[in-house]
Design brief:
This protein is mostly helical. The chain has four helices and no strands. Helix 2 (about 25-40) runs antiparallel to helix 3 (about 45-70) and helix 3 runs antiparallel to helix 4. The longest helix has 25 residues, at about 45-70.
Length: about 90
């Protein structure tokens, strides 16, 4: 039995034809992971903590915007939009 048409539409990579749910992180996502990890492990306060939060937030926003614009399937584009919405909700 094959996958449902909705599943195919949502997860089928438009460039390769493969099913794509996750991908290897790109540079903005690596910056987010490192900044978030440092803040989590060291829990710095003051300017350093704020700086790590800003770097992580901006990197994640860049990643999400890239997914919205260049995501390989509707799932990846929707994921980017959800992350942008979550960031806006957090910072506003």
């Amino acid at each position: 039995m094959g996958a449902s048409p909705i599943f195919e539409w949502l997860f089928r990579n438009r460039a390769t034809g493969e099913i794509t749910i996750g991908q290897v992180p790109n540079a903005p996502l690596w910056v987010f992971i490192v900044a978030w990890g440092l803040a989590l492990v060291f829990d710095p306060g003051g300017a350093l903590g704020t700086g790590l939060d800003v770097v992580a937030g901006v990197a994640l926003l860049i990643w999400a915007g890239d997914e919205i614009l260049r995501g390989v399937n509707p799932f990846r584009r929707l994921l980017g939009a959800v992350v942008v919405g979550a960031l806006l909700a957090r910072f506003l």
